[in-house]
Amino acid sequence: MSLRRFVVHPDAITADAVVLRGGEAHHAAVVLRMQPGERVVVVDGSGLERVVELTSVSPQEMTGRVIETRRGMPPRVALLLIQGVPKAAKMDDVVRMGTELGVREFIPVLTRRTVAEGRGRAERWRRIGAAAAKQSRRADVPTIRDPQPLAEALDRLPPDTLLLVLWEGERARTIASALRGDPRPGRVAVLVGPEGGLDEDEVRLAVERGGVPVTLGPLVLRTETAGVAALAMVLYEFELRE
Asked: What are phi and psi of 46, to 5 degrees?
């Protein structure tokens, strides 16, 4: 039987002890009715998993002692999603599903066709990412940036990043063909426009920054679907094809 998982701030963990407060403690004590002596897994976003035996449980605070520390299984490729901020709650779904697929960093961007700017919503997205990381048994928690202009996000990409640009104007180059090469990249960023997509100037800007336009096929996908589909394709090429 798998152990319950909890996400904490790194400050909550010392060499051999863990203290959980707030929502996680309340959930453990009131909802799960956990008791001293039970074991849980605690992660702090560092990639390490700690097996913890609980020593005290209350709605205000839960404490435990670390009995095992192990490293989680990281994906073979670092995935980044540069997502044009969509309207309403669509970004919630993008963060949840992207986290389940192993995205390491979400970069919401403002483009010419952006309608919703996502002001004040980054903290909500971070909570969704942490919950999705716990549900999918990740040992890390994705980084979720505040919304920023597209050009700024592209300029901040590490130089060793392969940037895939999802664009309906590209008809031939697939994600699989863009990933071929020796050696394969260790970091892949997927750029997705908002509703209405990227305009030609933005695609040109991304190409100038080393981006590679790719197609997802003949059908037009919604913005909240396109990025997730592309991430799944990248994950397949790196993790499952062999």
From this structure: -85, -10
Q: Find out whether the peptide bond into 147 is cis, omega within 30 degrees of 0.
A: no
Instruction: Please give the Cα distance from 87 to 93 (Å, whole number).
Output: 12
Residues near 93 by Cβ (< 8 Å), separated by ≥ 6? Answer: 224
Number of domains in the chain: 2
| Burial category of 131 from C-beta neighbours within 10 Å (exposed 0-12, middle 13-18, buried 19 and up) | middle
CATH code for the domain of 155: 3.40.1280.10
- Are residues 161 and 194 located together in one domain of the fold? yes
Rounded to a whole number of angstroms, the distance between the first and last alpha carbons of the chain is 30
The residue to which tokens 């039970």 are assigned: 38
Cβ–Cβ < 8 Å for 198, 165: yes
148-156 own/partner pairs: CB under 8 Å, 24+ apart: 148/107, 148/108, 148/109, 148/110, 149/109, 149/110, 150/82, 150/84, 150/109, 150/110, 150/111, 150/202, 150/205, 150/206, 151/205, 153/82, 153/107, 153/109, 154/82, 154/205, 154/206, 154/209, 154/211, 155/209
Where a domain ends, among 44, 71, 98? 71
- The pLDDT score that the predictor gives to residue 182 is 66
pLDDT value for 83: 97
Give the pLDDT mean for 232-241.
88
The continuous run of DSSP H or E covering 69 comes out as strand 61-71
For residue 127, which of 3, 23, 42 has the smallest C-alpha distance? 23
Total Cβ atoms within 10 A of residue 241: 9
**Structural domain span for residue 24:** 4-71
Q: Quick: pLDDT tens for 119-129.
A: 889 999 999 99
